## 1
Amino acid sequence: MGTGISQKYTMIDGDEQYRRRSNLIPTLQEIQKTKNYLSREDLEAVSIKLGIPLSEVYGVATFYHQFELKPPGIFKISVCMGTACYLRGNTENYEMLKQLLKLKPGKKTTDDGVFTLEKTRCFGCCSLAPVIRINDDIYGAVDIKTLRRLIAKYRSRAKQIQAKARERRIR
């Protein structure tokens, strides 16, 4: 055995070590599918369950763009930055969304927890450029007027969702 990382795992046989590591990403994906993000407690539990140091679990969770470490908004707005969308104005649309949502520098989620804004790559519908996605809904030929209309529409939906949630808590 050499020194360093390989020495650290000499007590675990090779198959066991591989099995634990190969389960890391699917485990994180499953938790995220359930909660929409990974909390510190989730990462600690995965570390213990799989026998992988927390620093490595955290490293994987922060390396892959698919993982969120903070609760996302009710509505996730994804702005395509693929070539066609970029050339047809989605950079300006992204900046306008930051203003409309009153996002502070370095923040992705609005203070009220309604919207999360992110840049993404191609959605595969370049003929509709510029394109944004709000949760699972795709919108093409998006301009500033469309953005204002969509934000108003989804804010209204958020109020309905929040009112139903309050109603359920009261009962």
Note: The CA atoms of residues 28 and 38 lie 7 Å apart.
## 2
Amino acid sequence: MQLPRISLGIDDQRVITGALRILDLLIVAATGYVAYGIYHGFTAYMPDHYPIAIALGILITANFMHFGKLYKFVDLQKITTQIGTLSACWVAVMVSLVLIAYFGKVSSNFSRAWATYWFIAAYISLSCIRIFASILIKQLREKGQLTYNVIVVGAGELGERLVRHLENRKA
């Protein structure tokens, strides 16, 4: 006997993409703070310009990833597309931050090692989340979730062609 599907009554695709957006931003924030702790020590005082840079990084990340269409549900299973676009977006975020610091004449206030640690840690973490999301979506689709139920009304030739098309797509 198959257990009934538990649903929140919310579009599951939007829940997954929304959770992915939140996770991405939390990763950017967490890796920024962890990178500072690794390089300067976790008990060391963090000057105010580091949290400001991290907050700006979160804001820029949210925009670049949105405009890079990293949250299109149909593309979440295409891991090579996701990693490629993620790479371009994350490099663009870091280049933007470097340019802002340079033209704001505050680049000497930041440790290059911290920026490098942050870049690498966030990139690896964001990539792992994308891989995990791809695997999760594949498993949910195999279980019959994240799919649409379709009712075909009519037994004409057009209805039969539609049913054949949908069955072929499923396989």
Note: The chain has five helices and no strands.
## 3
Amino acid sequence: MSVKVSDCFKLGSIHKTHGVSGRLIIKTDYNLELLEFEEPVFVVVDGLPVPVFLEEITERTFDSYIVKFELIDTIEKAREFVGCDILAPKHSANHERIDFITQVIGIEVHDKKHGFLGVCNGIETIPGNPLMIINQENGNQLFIPIVDEWVIDFTPSKRIVLNCPQGLLSL
């Protein structure tokens, strides 16, 4: 299988090994749990993309995951990939949506009717229904689903204005 680097986007990089059974820790700006990997991803080894299939993905922190690739089953094999970039075909994922999700961390969240709600400090990754975790000034947290239709205005890394359905904020 040959692939052009220009037909891919950088998914992340391999940070270090995890355990002795070939698992690796990937650092990424993407939420891997929202992506579907029916095709291989590519590990860039000596400048060449090498296809590998993801067998398991486990969230470690917001920006890192423990992954298991098929056919990499020892720590020795895994070490060969540490420091390598990982690419995914552009057509294999809605990475624009994932970019949006990662850009809401740390920004002000406003509602059209209620005004300033707080600052988004994370994303709760529920399959098919990611939630913004919003820290309010009073110390409480709000969990608001990320729904495209609710977004009125979005300025990356600064603020998002939502039109939340009636009653959502009183839950």
Note: The mean pLDDT is 86.
